[in-house]
Amino acid sequence: MVRLFIFLVVVLALGWGFSWLADRPGLISITWQDHLIETSLMVAATAMVALIGLAMLLWWIIGVIWTSPYSVRRYFRARKRDRGYQALSTGLIAAGAGNALLARKMSLRTRGLISADQEPLIHLLEAQAALIEGKHDEARKKFEQMAEDPETRELGLRGLYMEARRLGANEAARQYAEKAVEHAPYLPWAAQATLESRSQAGRWDDAIRLLDQQRMANILEKPQAERWKAVLLTAKANDRLEGDPKGARDDAMAALKLAKDLVPAAVIAAKAWLREDNVRKAASTLEGVWKLGPHPEIAGAYIRARSGDSTVDRLKRAEKLEAMRPNNVESLLAVAQAALDAQQFKKARAKAEAAARMQPREAVYLLLADIEEAETGDQGRVRHWMAQALRAPRDPAWVADGFVSEKWLPLSPVTGRLDAFEWKVPFDQLEGPVEEGSLAADTAIASLPPVTVSEAKTDTATEEPPKPILVEVKPAPQEAKPAQKELAVAAKTPAPANVISKDGKSPENEEEPVPFFGRPPDDPGVKDPDAAQPATRLRLF
Predict the structure, then answer these.
(1) What is the pLDDT of residues 247-297, one digit of tens each?
(2) Which of 235, 265, 307, 494 is most buried per CB count within 10 Å?
(3) What sections of the protein cross the membrane (predicted)?
(4) What are the domain boundaries of the chain?
């Protein structure tokens, strides 16, 4: 654009000059060796311009002839370089596609057309070709050569780092990452690897310092950096909880400011507050996280905040949590468990059944089994809830890379990834027959067998498990009219709910109630006083 502007200015200047001379005619006389040359001013100016243009043309022709050997060499060199770059591009594409044969062929062609000193990407192509062919030793040598060159140091260190990770040499991988961070702290992979290695070694302060540097260098986005910093502060607080509760409390509270829903940080902060006998602060911290998202660990720490509380006091604290987040499964389970501990079985059963209707899962049915065991001791009903637990969806847990942990960890034990644990249902526990939905819970509650009454066999040495009483009534002959009258009178009396007939059904579910006799058949009270007439035969099992 600038050249075009200059060309236009020169053309306009020449045109204006010739126009100015044309408006002012004149005569020029030149005397040279007894010759007199006279011409007009316009002709003289035109001739001068033509001579200047001819001189420039002759100078250009002489220059072209003089530099033609170099121009020819440069032309062929550029053509060879272009062919080399074309081969290099084709080879890199082939290496990325996994075509080892073409990548090696293009690598050799590139070597013949371009010098490796001029183009460092040739080393990369050769290393990639060696990796595809499975020649890892050759690839490592290439990466080492690249690591020694300042121009390709970062690329070589990354290749060596990946090879060390592949071989499981974690210490060597850490050293390569540390070296890369020293020369280029802005590399995301190096910073991430160094951050994870420092975290695995428990160097939380160094990890936090490196994370702050990455944040200032805009390597990480602000939400991600704040989340990871909160995780590191929580891990640091967990390590300091036993020896320095006050420092652990400060770190945990700082983590909660960065990630308000971080459950482990809230639990650690509450434990630190409780060690300072500050129950109010501990409860306030747990309540803040509970309002954001109910969690069983929050409920457990909140309900058992004071070790000297009675079961009734713990039940009141659980009900306070439920008031904060009503109609929530975790709230209902917390109240049900506290009510069970307080021996308030009616409330425990109601809350547990409500949780089952809302979200039927394994923990809900197991809690119902515990309630049944404590209230009635009926093994049939307990087994009913246990069977429902086997078919119910599994409970959420701390999961990272397929690994299920009983407690939260800052790093994944499988890959070493930071902030990998999530509170969710493990994938490996989703197999098998699973019944979901509130209809499954309603069906389970409706199919609950009735409570059975067992005969307690008192023995000074042992006590056998109770067995249900089975009653079988056989009709009397037609001529035994007095006995039939007694049975008819007994049939009008409602049978108690704790009797099960021989066919396994409760009398409540039958159309006609079955009479119940509380004394053995050899008792005179159940025999017909008139011995002449046959009586109804009764058998008790």
Answers:
(1) 999 999 999 999 999 999 999 999 999 999 999 999 999 999 999 999 999
(2) 265
(3) 41-66, 87-103
(4) 135-216
Quick one: tokens of 180? 């890369």
Q: Are 421 and 405 in contact (CB under 8 A)?
A: yes
**pLDDT value at 61 more than 50:** yes
What are the tens digits of pLDDT across the range 100-122?
A: 888 888 888 888 888 766 788 88
Question: In sequence order, what are the beta bridge partners of 30?
Answer: 37
Vertex 194: Cα angle to 424 and 223 (nearest 5)? 50
Contacts of 260 (CB under 8 A, 6+ apart): 288, 289, 292
What residues contact residue 11 under an 8 Å CB cut-off, 6+ apart? none
Kindly tell me the burial class for residue 350, based on how many C-beta atoms sit within 10 Å of its own C-beta (0-12, 13-18, 19 or more): middle
Cα separation, 294 vs 329, whole angstroms: 9
Helices (H), 150-278: 153-167, 170-183, 188-200, 204-216, 222-240, 245-258, 263-275
Cα(213)–Cα(191) distance, integer angstroms = 10
Distance CA 109, CA 481 (A): 117
Selection from 333, 470, 447 nearest residue 381 by Cα: 447
| 356: CB partners within 8 A, 6+ apart | 364, 365, 368, 441, 444, 445
**Single-letter code of the amino acid located at 193:** A
Q: Which of 369, 366, 331, 370 is nearest to 351 (CA)?
A: 331
Distance CA 214, CA 360 (A): 45
**Burial class for 490, CB neighbours closer than 10 Å (0-12, 13-18, 19+):** middle
The pair of structure tokens assigned to 497 is 């709910």
Q: Compute the distance between CA of residue 146 and CA of residue 162 in angstroms, rounded to an integer.
A: 14
Please count the residues of the chain.
541
Which residues, other chains included, contact 316 with Cβ-Cβ below 8 Å and sequence gap of 6+?
none
**Token pair of 524 as six digits:** 């005179």
Element (H, E) at 38: strand 36-40
pLDDT digits (tens, 9 = 90+) for 419-429: 999 999 887 54
pLDDT tens readout for residues 290-315: 999 999 999 999 999 888 889 999 99
Cβ–Cβ < 8 Å for 340, 332: no
